């Protein structure tokens, strides 16, 4: 395998940026992250677990840049995506003398990159941010595209901003330390991207699942790069989610509602999205489209992801949370597939069809 990482260039409203995929990228941060000329301080935002696992590696990579790197560690988990945590980070930036020309680097999973991106977006009306995602979910989805956000008690990611990174370093070496259940959770987003725009990847995920769970570097680099390309190309065409980018919410309307109703503890994000995609497949069939439920279940279950198990969550509670979601727009919207590779947004879906589709994941 070549030491050269895969580079995926992303056009954006700014100057554009590159998503780099491959092993050993943290140690090459000085080469791959474009640092603002005026930068004096690099704020490295991570959680305590990631700092213990990868803090030394990322520090070595950043030291060669010749700026003062200041670590900021938050509590691990979804509970850190709060306004209180944002305020604590912002006040920490003030205390360490960060100015508008400085750089924020988010190192960790989707929670960390969401929060780091948001504080970078609002501090001094915008600092440059780079992301070093250490989870599969972060590498193929959360760290790409500039969506940032934190949660409110009423729902997920209700406060946020679009703030494009200057670089994303998807160091697949970091996946070696990822617990298996988190790797599996991230695979739900890979399946989502394959369903949306790369159907051949579905069978490859099934065929190569042992190599994926064995953390084979070459296989992981290929899988991460394939899934990341789907996200990058959609984001290029619709940076601020006015049209096509909404397709990336496939499985997330129901998935986010289940996460919230489970207190962000019962289901991991990918598990909830897997249930949400299964629901979407059932809903498409209820709406008279071709029934791709079997294909969803075949791929998701082969990867150890759930396609049933929401039975004790009342439909009415689910509907109430979905109505408060940011994807609501003068009515509830769902992303469905007419076929793999052919997503479609539907609105004004009769409640009886929603109820019938929900039965399939109970």
Strand composition percent = 15-25%
Strand order of the largest sheet: 1-2-9-6-5-3-4
Multimerization state: single chain
Helix content: 40-55%
* Cα Rg: 20 Å
Total strands: 11
Distance between the termini: 44 Å
Average pLDDT metric? 93
**Series of H and E elements:** EEHEHEHEHEHEEEHHHHHHHHEEH
- Total helical segments: 14
Coarse structural class: alpha/beta
Give a quick account of the main beta sheet: strands, pairing sense, barrel closure.
7 strands, mixed
Write down the overall geometry. globular
- Uncertain residue segments: none
Q: Your description of this structure?
A:
With 362 residues, this protein is α/β, with parallel strands linked by helices. It is built from 14 helices and eleven strands. Helix 5 packs parallel to helix 9.
In short:
With 362 residues, the chain is α/β, with parallel strands linked by helices.
Strands, helices and their partners?
Blueprint (H helix, E strand, L loop, with lengths): L5 E5 L6 E6 L6 H4 L8 E7 H16 L4 E7 L8 H13 L7 E6 L1 H13 L5 E6 L2 H7 L4 E6 L2 E8 L4 E5 L8 H18 L2 H8 L1 H5 L3 H21 L14 H10 L7 H18 L6 H10 L12 H9 L9 E7 L2 E6 L3 H9 L3
Parallel strand pairs: 2-9, 3-4, 3-5, 5-6, 6-9
Antiparallel strand pairs: 1-2, 7-8, 10-11
Helix pairs in contact: 4-5, 5-6, 5-9, 6-9, 6-11, 10-11, 10-13, 11-12, 11-14
